[in-house]
Amino acid sequence: MTKAPSIKALGDSIRIQQFADPADMTQESAERDVAVQLLDRESALSRQLRAAIERIADGSYGLCLECEEEIAPKRLKAIPWAERCIGCQEKADGSSSQRGRMSNSEDWAEAA
User: Fold this and answer.
1) What is the rounded CA–CA span in Å between residue 62 and residue 79?
2) Domain of 50: which CATH number?
């Protein structure tokens, strides 16, 4: 005579496995990416603010870190944590975007 399966064994045998919907997984991934980007931005802003406070303390606030010229008061009013004058910032932005384009093209070249 065979022994009847227990209720728990029967329950385990009919348990439905749930698989995440691909659309839900994509949305959750996108939401995580946005959250990480926001944290990165907030962290960068926090570092910039701390650096500005240090420059106030050492007396170098308002001076461009690149050319050591005075940063325009209008710029400091708009961006109190500015580290560079507008000219040096534009150069820095241009060189960083140029590096980004070069690394992207290098990535494409490696992929080919």
Assistant:
1) 11
2) 1.20.120.910
Q: Which residue has the higher pLDDT, 8 or 80?
A: 80
pLDDT tens across 23-78, in order? 777 888 888 888 889 989 999 999 999 999 999 999 999 999 999 999 999 999 99
Domain limits for position 63:
25-111
> For residue 39, how many C-alpha atoms fall within 13 Å in the half-sphere facing its CB?
6
Task: Please state the φ and ψ torsions of residue 63, each to the nearest 5 degrees.
Answer: -105, 135
Residue 3 lies in a domain: no
Is residue 66 one of the residues assigned to a domain? yes
Helices (DSSP H) in the chain: which residue ranges?
7-14, 22-58, 73-78, 86-111
The pTM score is: 0.59
